[in-house]
Design goal:
Blueprint: H1 2-37, H2 50-57, H3 61-73, E1 77-80, E2 84-87, H4 98-104, H5 113-135, H6 138-153, H7 158-175, H8 179-187, H9 189-202, H10 207-221, H11 225-253
Antiparallel strand pairs: 1-2
Helix pairs in contact: 1-3, 2-3, 5-7, 5-9, 5-10, 5-11, 6-7, 6-10, 7-8, 7-9, 9-11, 10-11
Length: 254
């Protein structure tokens, strides 16, 4: 019985260790990534040696190596034999990745990412809306209407409102039946969610946004291509206003 008990104890310890380790790795990955975003380790500079990183972050070499692999997969660092690990130029970072956006966090204003997302939307969404007025299926219009109703019903809840807002724009790009737009929707999903969330928590009144989204759904129902494009442009005009509010909030937070 004693041997069995000792065996169980070792198994429990091993299980507990294996459960903790991914969490430890994630924490260290976040810490190194945020130090990179804060320019503690500037682009082009080498990271400290592996042993020094272990001491700095209080973890084993295995955890450091696993964290560096994650950061390399997202374009933040590059490792070379006998050279070490170097911080990549910001242009090489996968800034559309949800985790990278989270790591950039309070430093995101320095990257002008919200402005870049808005520029991309300015280019894509009016055309997508016009195509959707001609090509959207009845089901896609119903899905847009559902997303719009969820926005309307959660106007006082920024998190739920953002989820519905992201769904609306995702369905809109899909409803354009343009294969490139549909791929772009997948590519910018995390960045779009970040941008919309930043805007939605920065403004108190979302009635204007709810109104114009509803008008876009109606334009699609009527197969009004010009009206759909105009609605998309008005949505983006509101986004400019909300972006200014969001950047003030981000600036105060930083």
């Amino acid at each position: 019985m004693k041997l069995e008990s000792e065996g169980q104890s070792r198994a429990e310890k091993s299980s507990s260790s294996s459960e903790r380790r991914p969490r430890v790795r994630r924490n260290v990955t976040v810490a190194i990534a945020q130090d990179i975003c804060a320019d503690r380790y500037p682009s082009g500079s080498p990271l400290p040696r592996e042993n020094d990183l272990c001491e700095l972050y209080g973890v084993s070499r295995t955890v450091i190596r696993e964290s560096l692999k994650v950061l390399e997969s997202k374009g933040l660092v590059r490792g070379k034999p006998r050279v070490g690990t170097t911080v990549c130029d910001r242009d090489d970072w996968n800034i559309l990745d949800a985790e990278v956006l989270e790591w950039m966090g309070p430093y995101i204003k320095d990257f002008d990412l919200l402005g870049c997302i808005l520029e991309a939307r300015r280019t894509i969404e009016p055309a997508a809306a016009e195509y959707a007025a001609e090509r959207a299926s009845a089901q896609e219009i119903a899905d847009l209407d559902k997303a719009w109703r969820q926005m309307r019903d959660s106007a006082g809840e920024p998190e739920s409102f953002t989820d519905a807002d992201v769904m609306f724009h995702t369905v809109l790009l899909t409803a354009s039946h343009n294969q490139v737009f549909r791929r772009l929707s997948s590519a910018i999903h995390a960045a779009l969610k970040y941008a919309l969330h930043a805007s939605n928590i920065a403004v108190e009144n979302r009635e204007d946004a709810i109104l114009v989204h509803g008008q876009l759904v109606e334009a699609l129902r009527m197969r009004d291509k010009t009206g759909a494009r105009e609605c998309a442009n008005r949505m983006l005009d509101l986004a400019v206003r909300d972006l200014a509010a969001a950047e003030k909030v981000i600036g105060r937070t930083k």
